[in-house]
TrEMBL record, chain A:
<comment type="similarity">
    <text>Belongs to the RBR family. Ariadne subfamily.</text>
</comment>
<dbReference type="Pfam" id="PF26000">
    <property type="entry name" value="UBA_ARIH2_N"/>
</dbReference>
<dbReference type="Pfam" id="PF22191">
    <property type="entry name" value="IBR_1"/>
</dbReference>
<dbReference type="GO" id="GO:0016567">
    <property type="term" value="P:protein ubiquitination"/>
</dbReference>
<keyword id="KW-0677">Repeat</keyword>
<feature type="region of interest" description="Disordered">
    <location>
        <begin position="531"/>
        <end position="566"/>
    </location>
</feature>
<keyword id="KW-0862">Zinc</keyword>
<keyword id="KW-0863">Zinc-finger</keyword>
<dbReference type="GO" id="GO:0008270">
    <property type="term" value="F:zinc ion binding"/>
</dbReference>
TrEMBL record, chain B:
<protein>
    <recommendedName>
        <fullName>E2 ubiquitin-conjugating enzyme</fullName>
        <ecNumber>2.3.2.23</ecNumber>
    </recommendedName>
</protein>
<keyword id="KW-0067">ATP-binding</keyword>
<feature type="active site" description="Glycyl thioester intermediate">
    <location>
        <position position="90"/>
    </location>
</feature>
<dbReference type="GO" id="GO:0000209">
    <property type="term" value="P:protein polyubiquitination"/>
</dbReference>
<dbReference type="GO" id="GO:0006511">
    <property type="term" value="P:ubiquitin-dependent protein catabolic process"/>
</dbReference>
<feature type="domain" description="UBC core">
    <location>
        <begin position="5"/>
        <end position="165"/>
    </location>
</feature>
<comment type="similarity">
    <text>Belongs to the ubiquitin-conjugating enzyme family.</text>
</comment>
<keyword id="KW-0808">Transferase</keyword>
<dbReference type="GO" id="GO:0005524">
    <property type="term" value="F:ATP binding"/>
</dbReference>
Length: 595, 167
């Protein structure tokens, strides 16, 4: 990793960089401001930032996955640090840390800046607020007004004594009200003295103790929203800590769930969080249903229920109880129809009115809704299909890892370690399906009027799809021939082919992801629309392709490369398969040196 | 157990109030079979618009009293910025602290088990003298109180007269 200073220097070079830099400085201070309104700013720009550091990033070094045990350990460490630094009890340290959202440095800064003020605001009084009645052997509880022996009375440091039963009831109510119990104050309304966890835990039932401890654990994550978040997978108990820095927001939790740290949706590179949000909203929004109803139905002129005309003539009879009979074209009562309106089945009234322009507005709206619905359906269908393909590929991958690899190892007399290229291929397929899926959301939101971009995008998407199909085909169908029977000599060719395809597809998709994240800025460069000629330029400018650790698909690493030595090599930049026979140090297509 | 504690405490408060009545209100049970429903009459405090009125209200206590606050609802007609049109009283000490976990600077104004029937009714009497139009329960009354004090006074005088007729 480069030092912080170097990063800042580099970032200062672009206006985007400066902006991101400020944001993240703020985060690293763990400031108390907990508004989330700046989240959308993260949307796109990190790709520029990491392009300035082609060699500085290892996949996912900026995330730490925390188990409950880790969180508890960190809480304990924070408490003991504060206990030592400020010479206060662990319970008081806990009160302070919860108040300052578990930031040790913040506690220190505030405490040493103005101890009095901090004590007053969190409720850690130095002296009892009331000193009466310490000597009596019996006391009246001010809540239940019963007289109790002094041993049955409890008070926080403020000295407001109440009986244990009343304290227990008070704390029990607070715990069942929610996480607010972590900052509970004295029951006396004029007193703000904090009730520490020592007092809480010593008084309440085991059930309440567990609830309280649960809130305590969760507060480390939930009060710390800018740095730690829960993994959004259902039932997953891990939290993820984010260290501001370079890199993408996509990460894999220990539970296997692949998600975006920023918006906590499933991983969605190359599409930015905002688009994903819009897309998901659109998918579940009622508005699509409304569009459909608008496009394909007309309301009954009498009862206003939408009617879809799925067959037959223009004579419509609404379903009971309405039973209104009307003409589909002019929506007038059927009784007005007959010879004088041009016959029963060709409505003159409609034709005349249409010529006068009466129906234009409604018709046009219906037409537009129909078009936009078709457009949306086109993208949604492909998005959803790729998702189901991905799910299928994931299942196949697991089957491969658990069953087929063993089989293959036996029939082909190969050690399992030599068959890693097969699982690598499947991992790549899963990843590519995911990317491909999101390119459809991208495509839906790509403005219609940017023709060049659309053309380029659709071309690249088409190529990506075709490449992925080749890989999927090879991994699924070609493999079958090697699963049964005896060791085949052609297995080595298969290895070369599959490993080669994996590597080529991987590179192609990485380039696609990067291009989309850069908002297809290559299109702005003249003559760059064709992928082969654009790549040499791009790698010279902001792309930084190749020669750097891979993002997102890091699982399939570089090991697959070993098998592709024999007959041809794939150019890292334009993915062209060059033959080894040629003077092959330079790619014949893009003239880029072989790496 | 908890319910037992609540009814013991309520009986004790009822006994104390009947033995040592407090100026400004009187209190009793709606029905002798339940100690959780109280009938109270609040006397309009002197030198205020509500002077001379006898306002009836019902206090309902939850089973986990005193850990949760009771509700108070006027059964007499009432026109006040902090009383909902249906008669419910909206003052901060009747709000459980859990309603607003961040409002600790105002902890002293919220519900606490230390409050009793007496402190609640004293707060309501104070509310009659000093309406708070910042966060009104009855927006129309608050608006009138702020902008058409004459009209507000007229309405309050009418409900005071009505309350005397029923008393």
């Amino acid at each position: 990793m480069e030092s912080e200073d170097e990063m800042q220097d580099a970032w200062a070079g672009t206006s985007d960089g400066e902006f991101v830099n400020e944001e993240e400085d703020e985060e690293s201070d763990a400031l108390a401001s907990d508004d989330d309104n700046d989240e959308s700013d993260y949307g796109f720009d990190y790709s520029n930032v990491d392009d300035l550091h082609p060699s500085s990033r290892l996949p996912q070094t900026n995330f730490t996955i925390l188990s409950e045990k880790d969180i508890r350990q960190r809480q304990d460490e924070a408490v003991s640090t504060i206990t030592n630094f400020l010479s206060i009890s662990p319970a008081d340290a806990g009160v302070l840390l919860r108040h300052f959202k578990w930031s040790v440095s913040k506690v220190n800064d505030e405490w040493f800046a103005d101890e009095e003020r901090v004590r007053a605001s969190v409720g850690l009084l130095e002296k009892p607020a009331t000193s009466k009645r310490q000597t009596q052997t019996e006391m009246t509880c001010e809540i239940c007004f019963e007289v109790h022996p002094f041993e049955k009375m409890r008070a926080p440091r403020c000295g407001h004594y109440f009986c244990e039963t009343c304290w227990t009831g008070y704390i029990h109510t607070a715990i069942n009200d929610g996480p607010g119990c972590l900052t509970l104050r004295c029951a006396d309304p004029s007193c703000g003295s904090a009730i520490g966890e020592d007092m809480v835990l010593s008084l309440v039932s085991t059930d309440d103790q567990q609830k309280y401890m649960r809130y305590l654990l969760r507060s480390y994550v939930e009060d710390n929203r800018k740095q730690v978040k829960w993994c959004p997978a259902p039932g997953c108990e891990y939290a993820v800590e984010f260290q501001p820095g370079v890199g993408s927001y996509d990460l894999v939790c220990k539970c296997g769930f692949n998600f975006c740290w920023n918006c906590r949706e499933e991983a969605h590179r190359p599409v930015d969080c905002e688009t994903v949000n819009k897309w998901i909203l659109k998918n579940c929004a009622e508005s699509e249903n409304m569009n459909w109803i608008l496009a394909n139905s007309k309301p009954c002129p009498k009862c206003k229920r939408p009617i879809e005309k799925n067959q037959g003539c223009m004579h419509i009879t609404c379903t009971p109880p309405c039973k209104f009979e009307f003409c589909w074209l002019c929506l007038g009562a059927w009784t007005d129809h007959g010879e004088r309106t041009g016959g029963f089945y060709a409505c003159n009234r409609y034709e005349t009115a249409k010529q006068e322009g009466v129906y234009d507005e409604a018709e046009r709206r219906r037409e537009m809704a129909k078009n936009s619905l078709e457009r949306y359906t086109h993208y949604y269908e492909r998005w959803a299909t790729n998702e189901s393909s991905r799910a299928k590929a994931l299942a196949d991958l697991q089957d491969m890892q658990n069953v087929q690899i063993e089989k293959l190892s036996v029939t082909q007399c190969q050690p399992v370690s030599q068959l890693k290229f097969v699982t690598d291929a499947w991992l790549q397929i899963v990843e590519c399906r995911r990317v491909l899926k999101w390119t459809y959301a991208y495509g839906y939101y790509l403005p219609e009027n940017e023709h060049t971009k659309r053309q380029f995008f659709e071309y690249s998407q088409g190529e990506a799809e075709a490449g992925l199909e080749r890989l999927h085909q090879c991994a699924e169908k070609d493999l079958l021939t090697f699963l049964g029977g005896t060791p085949t000599s052609s297995f080595n060719d298969f290895r070369t082919k599959l490993a080669g395809l994996t590597s080529v597809t991987k590179t192609y998709f990485e380039n696609l992801v990067r291009a989309l994240e850069n908002n297809l800025s290559d299109v702005d460069i003249p003559k760059a629309a064709a992928k082969s000629s654009s790549s040499s330029k791009a790698s010279g400018s902001s792309k930084g392709r190749g020669g750097r650790p891979k993002v997102g698909s890091s699982k399939s690493g570089g090991s697959s490369r070993s098998g592709e030595e024999s007959t041809h090599w794939s150019c890292e930049h334009c993915t062209y398969a060059n033959t080894t026979a040629a003077s092959s140090i330079v790619c014949v297509i893009c003239n880029h040196a072989r790496s | 157990m908890a319910e037992n504690q609540a009814s013991l405490l309520l009986r004790k408060q009822l006994k104390d109030l009947s033995r040592n009545p407090v100026d400004g209100f009187s209190a009793g049970l709606v029905d002798d079979s339940s100690v959780f429903e109280w009938n109270v009459t609040i006397i309009g405090p002197s030198e205020t618009l509500y002077e001379g009125g006898f306002f009836n209200a019902i206090m309902s206590f939850p089973p986990d009293y005193p850990n949760s606050p009771p509700t108070v609802r006027f059964t007499s007609e009432m026109w006040h910025p902090n009383v909902y049109p249906d008669g419910r009283v909206c003052i901060s000490i009747l709000h459980a602290p859990g309603d607003d976990p961040n409002g600790y600077e105002l902890a002293s104004e919220r519900w606490s088990p230390v409050h009793t029937v007496e402190t609640i009714l004293i707060s309501i009497i104070a509310m009659l003298s000093n309406p708070n139009d910042e966060s009104p329960a009855n927006v129309d009354a608050a608006k009138e109180w702020r902008e058409q004090r004459d009209e507000f006074q007229r309405k309050v005088r009418r409900i005071v007269r009505r309350s005397q007729e029923f008393a």
